[in-house]
Amino acid sequence: MSHYKTTLHDEAATQALGKSLAHTLVPGFSIFLHGDLGAGKTALTRALIHAAGHPGHVKSPTYTLAEPYGILLRGQPVTIMHFDLYRMSTPEEFLDAGFREEFNASNICIVEWPEKAGGVLPGPDLNVYLRVAGDGREVELHALSAKGIACLASLQFVPNL
């Protein structure tokens, strides 16, 4: 499966999707999150990072651009890098900050507002599109690699129960 679409009727459903995605993570995985302000990108990321094993506060890196979170993934230490590129003016800022090196075989990278980095980002394994729909959200997940396809194939998510 390379595509999945559903409606998230409330924040609890967004959190449930984040938790489900956390169980599919592997080192070297990257997720790009697309959507307008308030679409739920940070809420989804926060739920994913907590479900992956980070017990502390997960803040939006709106001003710092990146926040690392150390977790154990199947007994192995892994860093989840959470990027929020909303405040970037140019793609060169991403390169100048040295962020491209974080996209490697060891880290998991989650990027909000990837379009702000233009063509300097490595391609994602999974694109997630969130849209406000009434009180809820429409979400589409598109796998773009073998890792992304494996993620969607193993995703165990039943929304809105």
TrEMBL record:
Belongs to the TsaE family. It is found in: Cytoplasm. InterPro entries: P-loop_NTPase, T6A_TsaE. The keyword Magnesium applies. Keywords: ATP-binding, Cytoplasm, Magnesium, Metal-binding, Nucleotide-binding, tRNA processing. Its main location: cytoplasm. This is tRNA threonylcarbamoyladenosine biosynthesis protein TsaE.
